[in-house]
Amino acid sequence: MAGSGFLKFRVDYENNKDLPVGEGVHSDIVSAGGHLWRIECYPNGIGTLAGGELSLFFKHMSKSGTGRVEGIFEAFLMDRDGVPSTTAVGRTDVFKLDGNASGKCDNRGWIWFVKRADLEKNYVKDGHITFVCAILVISDSPIPVPSSDIGIHLGSLLDRMEGTDVSFTIDGETFLAHRAVLAARSPVFRAELFGSMAEAKMPSITLHDIAPAAFRVMLQFVYTDALPGEDELGESPVEMFQDLLAVADRYALDRLRLMCAQKLWDNLSVDTVATTLACAETYNCRELKDICFDFFAVEKKFKEAVFTHGFALLVQKYPCISAELKEKVRT
User: How many CA atoms within 13 Å lie on the side-chain side of 261?
Assistant: First the structure.
């Protein structure tokens, strides 16, 4: 059984930065995976190893009878511009706690989460610092915990278009979205929407060289981490997956890229292998390219595929692939 929880923890650093070692401030108690937790921040560290670093811990607050707990903790700081940090970040390995059967509180975290000098230089805003914390719990508790439904909730947020703060226009069609969600899922969106690029200041962004239908499905994936059924992808699912592969490469969505590669492999045939190989080469999908080479290596399939229109275009556009392919077939 698994469950997850997320918490934004804002700390009054200015009024707590001089606390003695081992004394800290804590968040409200939150529920995740059928257990209670809180976040504890020690501005001057904790324990005998403290020395110029802030410490951060997740504490298990359920008192008794909750059983053994296994899970993962993750936390990062928001910088002064409200952008997630890539350096002041921590993720634990899978932990095991006793579940407080004895009434003792268990915790996990980082004695050296961030240096005080870096913290005060890059993360303190209006006297405060902000952590974003995530808890993923796998528990042996006899109490059944439903699977995560965060994708359903985020998907409905996209469907209802509540709180959107950016729009994209493609061939006259407009798509509304949330900057924070896009930035959290894609480093490219993060650079565009929160970095120094012009798009960061624009409420509406016009995109070119991208299919509107593919962008719509990509947005659905970003919010739900899932793809719609093939019966929802129009008359040609193969073309849609090729377009999605292009979008995934453009926005560095690696999971989507591999999901599209798997779908294209599932639909691979003599008629589609050449265009699929061209797509794999164009959008940097080595895994799919290798599979297409293996398909061509079967003599009967190769003899049939070379007479397709797609193969003629492939050889014309990518002569280097033609050379690789001949070498592969020979071996």
Answer: 23
Q: How far apart are CA 166 and CA 235, in angstroms?
A: 30
pTM of the shown model: 0.53
User: Distance between CA atoms of 155 and 14, rounded to whole angstroms?
Assistant: 38
As beta bridge partners, residue 56 has 41, 110
In whole angstroms, what is the distance from residue 324 CA to residue 329 CA? 9
Sequence-distant (≥ 6) Cβ neighbours of residue 281 within 8 angstroms: 289, 318, 321
The identity of residue 106, as a single letter, is: D
Question: Residue 82 region, left (φ>0) first, then alpha (ψ -120 to 50), else beta?
Answer: left
Share of the chain above pLDDT 90, in %: 45
Alpha-helix runs per DSSP H in 166-285: 179-185, 187-194, 212-224, 237-250, 254-266, 273-282
- Going by C-alpha positions, the residue among 42, 15, 13, 14 that lies closest to residue 26 is 42
Q: Which of 67-76, 106-115, 189-198 has the lowest mean pLDDT?
A: 67-76
Q: Kindly give the pairing relationship between strand 35-42 and strand 95-97.
A: unpaired
- Assess contact for 305 and 273: CB atoms under 8 A: yes
Tell me phi and psi for residue 267, to 5 degrees: -105, 15
pLDDT, tens only, 171-211: 999 999 999 999 999 999 999 999 887 777 888 999 999 99
At residue 246, the 3 state secondary structure works out as helix
- Which of helix, strand or coil describes residue 8? strand
Q: Are 283 and 242 in contact (CB under 8 A)?
A: no
Nearest-angstrom CA–CA distance, 292 and 68: 47
- pLDDT tens digits, residue range 203-240? 899 999 999 999 999 999 999 999 888 778 878 888 89
- Give the ranges where the chain is alpha helix by DSSP (H): 13-16, 116-122, 150-160, 179-185, 187-194, 212-224, 237-250, 254-266, 273-282, 286-296, 299-305, 309-317, 319-330
| Amino acid in the structure at residue 192 | E
Instruction: Report residue 263 CA to chain centroid gap.
Output: 20
